[in-house]
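Re-run with default settings, no changes from the original entry. Doing this only to confirm the output is reproducible before filing.
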Amino acid sequence: MSLKMSIPPPHGGKLVDRVVRDADKARSLIAGCTSYDIQPTHDKDMPIRNVYREIMSTCYGFLSPVEGSMGRNELERVLKERRLESGWVFPFPMLFDVSEEDKSRLKVKGGDRLLLKLKGQPFATLDINEVYSIDPKDVATRTFGTPETVPGVVKHAFDPKHPGYNIYLHLNPVVFAGKYTIINEPTFRAPFDRFWLPPAKSREEFARRKWRTVIAHQTRNVPHLGHEMLMKNAAYMGDTEPANGILVNAIVGAKRIGDYPDEAILEAHEAVHTANYVKPDRHVVSFVLWDMRYGNPLESLLHGIVRQNLGCTHHMWGRDHAAVGDYYDSYATQTLWTKGIPGFGFDAPPCEVDKGLVLRPQNMGEFWYCPKCGEIAYNANCGHMDVVQRFSGSFIRSLLAEGLAPPPVIMRPEVYRVVVKWWRELGYPFNNKHYLSAREQELEVTVPRMEAAPAIAAGGHR
């Protein structure tokens, strides 16, 4: 891979920017609009998704070229071919769903503009071009595939234990399709504010640093030594010869029970370079708002799109990428990026198809700790397979839950101190129902007060 690379174009050719920053224009856009209060999608008493995160990621360009909630034909094409109506690759349905009761109460139709409120304040608009019905179970099943439709990749049928499947299963049956526009920019609360680096800004930052090759590291966890070695080896010893920089882009949003709190994830990755385990001038930590779908190869497609839009030239893919349980083959993501997966519409890798991605894959093996060698081994190639020890997130979490500091060969002490800091702050070390509920009350953002024209109707989003 030549070093004579440059930051790639956004997916679709142009970054989406649907944020109105002029207050007078914003007020004129929402004058007389029907209003609708955004609320989370719930599974019983637990919030599992908030569509505000999708609106933010859409309007700031993370999901370019997507501009809003998908229409019926586009939804069908995404489920069948993993492509938008324009032909550009995209893996997941993006839908603004409402209940039948809200549909009847709001009385909106194609051509209407809906004012979306967040925590009672004007936030965004949805310019409706279509209203249609869906079968949530059908959407959930077709989104993730089945052993019959994607043989050899999907190992068994999905069920509500899978967090992403559960999100789609709990959608409301009515979809308002159309483009979003943020008309009242939220501000991020600490510590999220210092890690907010949307695509336009990240590209500016890469240019300022003179980075021509940038490799992305996806994370939903605090880093252990295996993650650190993955980043270093992918960036400095892989095809990128080496990369000028590493972008850690964390997923911030509703995640499964047992994952780490988002605040700890961000600050723990920051600790890797503030402690100089990775040079600070080659390492940036940021995030994207997204309620994890845990879609393994499909999630890697979304991650590839997000990171290409951020300006990355490469993405590292490891075993069980963005996975939970054993629904997918452990190396399904690497299969997708090396050969393609026909059952998902790819007879070739996503970077080799028409209107696919420009971002290139860096497929990585697994890192182990070898007690005989006293060091970390790649793919256990030191010859001590009988004693090498896998980096186990479950084992590390069990140590933390007992109040035990993992040994330095597993987790850096600076990272452990971040975990403890947020444990003390929140009262628990891992994501749980209380954390999800508390986060839903305040979210990651605060929406400023805005004097808006009186709305003529009100409703609620489940």
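The domain at 23-188 is CATH 3.10.400.10 (Sulfate adenylyltransferase). The first strand starts at residue 34 and ends at 37.
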